[in-house]
Design goal:
Elements: H1 4-25, H2 31-52, H3 60-80, H4 86-112, H5 118-146, H6 159-179, H7 184-202, H8 210-232, H9 235-258, H10 263-268, H11 292-300, E1 304-309, H12 311-316, H13 319-331, E2 335-340, H14 350-357, E3 365-367, H15 368-371, E4 380-384, H16 393-396, E5 415-420, E6 440-444, H17 447-464
Parallel strand pairs: 1-2, 1-4, 2-3, 4-5, 5-6
Helix pairs in contact: 1-2, 1-9, 4-5, 4-8, 5-6, 5-7, 5-8, 6-7, 8-9, 11-17, 13-17
The structure holds NADP nicotinamide-adenine-dinucleotide phosphate (NAP).
NADP nicotinamide-adenine-dinucleotide phosphate binds at residues 87, 208, 211, 259, 310-312, 315-316, 343-348, 350, 385-389, 419-422, 424, 426-428, 446-447.
Length: 465
Amino acid sequence: MINANLAALLYLVAGVLFILALRGLSSPETSRQGNYLGIAGMAIAVLTTLFVAGPDWSGFGLIVLAVVIGGGLGAVIARRIPMTAMPQRTALSHAFGAAAAALVGISHYYSEGSHLASGSMVALGIEVMLGSLTFTGSMIAFAKLQGWLPGAPMTFKGQNVFNMLLLVGIVTATVWVIVNPAASALFYVMVGLATIFGVLFVVPIGAADMPVVIAILNSYAGLAGAATGFALDNKILVIAGTLDGASGLILSILMCKAMNRSITNVLFGAFGKPPETGADSGVKGTVRSMTADQAALLLAGSESIVVVPGYGMAVSQAQHAVKELADVLGERGIDVRYAVHPVAGRMPGHMNVLLAEAGVPYDKLYDMDQINDDFPRVDVAIVIGANDVVNPAARNNKASPIYGMPILNADKAKSVLVLKRSMAPGFAGIENELFYMPNCMMVFGDAKKTISEFSSAVKAAAKAA
Ligand code: NAP
């Protein structure tokens, strides 16, 4: 058993480790270390909570059982889940975290009920309200990303007004229960309304915007955790929940900035709806394509190449082949850099994680702002399974749903090779005028296979020379 002073000190150490973990996670070079620091902080927090609670060991068996089941499931999910399904996995974790906060709050209310002081009721009310709506909202986000629900926004007339009225009802019920903790029927009505609100809040948002929604739900789950900390008088839960809440909010703001959208537009704009009937994408022209061997000759004769990775690179798991191609080209004295768009792929940092896994040096990775002005001097931009993040419609087509989103200027390179399997659109569901530009050549096929063919052809050309 540990006394209160030692527990407070250990919680402080855990809190500092959490802050250092967040700092580490902000850069690919230090993210692994950040993860370890976070794990250490969480281990200290959990063990301290467990031992400060003693000497009552009556529930210890149940706790061990929960850890074994939860930890086992977590390990299986972490091992099995493909990198491409990371966003929905994150949504699922938020759903579980929020459900835990809501259930702890409900059981606390059930056991203490009308004896709770108003101060505790404030924390408990917020905890249960946010926990309930975050649980269902995250489950809907998961279902949309997993393809179990349609990705397009599901809307009905007057939806925003209805949602607002529902929210007003939830807040009124919560305030009423805080003032009259004995009003138990209203407490459970509030839980029900918040659960419905979570569903209605997320269904009108298109799957393309789900990562922002997930970041916002992450912040709600964090705040629910912090409120749980106040309700249970557990300081580390307050610290961890607040850090989680703040970082989720900051992430959602950064993502909106990268897409040049406001949070209100993401939450209430029903983005990703199919265009109204008869809408003309305005994309016209001829598509040129090349074989991998022809494209390899173009690469072999270049001095400067920029790789633009996108979601398709993740799908085909082409990152190792890309690194190998860069090495082969590097041996011929060709400069190969990587341009990483902040929302390329399906989650923040998606491309960085894959390229780091393949051993691409960090100093070869360039952010959009660092590299965009260089494109006119680049001999070949290789667009690998990217689509929306290089669509010039974002710059010049005001009717486009992605208009205003900053893009990588791949179209400004002297030549552009686009590696994808077909002319199918990307996540936003719109045509890409880049594919019709005179400096652009499509190389159709699975990205990994095409890149491997590039490497073999460049090697063969080097041998022949
Ligand atoms: P994208 O616009 O979704 O395009 C991906 C392209 O990859 C598709 O056009 C597809 O064409 C191609 N592809 C798929 N499998 C392939 C394979 N095996 N080999 C070769 N190509 C393949 O991707 P993006 O340019 O990375 O843009 C990301 C989009 O997702 C943006 O709209 C962004 O707002 C959104 N988003 C971003 C995040 C985030 O946080 N990063 C999260 C969710 C959504 P084919 O089918 O013809 O092969």
